[in-house]
Amino acid sequence: MSSKRPPLGVRLTVDIEEIRAPRGTVWWARVRWHDPESGRRETIKRSHPTHEAAAAWIAQMQNTSRTGVDATQTLADYVTVIGDRWTRGIDPTSTYDPYSAGIRRRVVPTLSVIFRSG
Hints:
Elements: E1 13-21, E2 24-34, E3 41-48, H1 51-67, H2 75-82, H3 96-117
Antiparallel strand pairs: 1-2, 2-3
């Protein structure tokens, strides 16, 4: 599954299309936006077994665009996305190394276990 997500604050256009096939009905949900950095039109399209599931996925993508938080994102993906932004205001000469090690060795693994089991 692609990790492409709409960026914060973009206006999404959405649609849901019903496809009737010999194996049953499938619902295709699509979100589109103009990327603010490249100016290119971006699209994400996913199939779903029901109209309700397609609508719920679109609502998640709209929430991602509105808040910058993707409920389907893994903790590891989130840590990658935020990068070193958590270090703002930390003195790189004294506290950065122990804080970085603590996050990498204790916080992320612990949260990963909690969220995987919960």
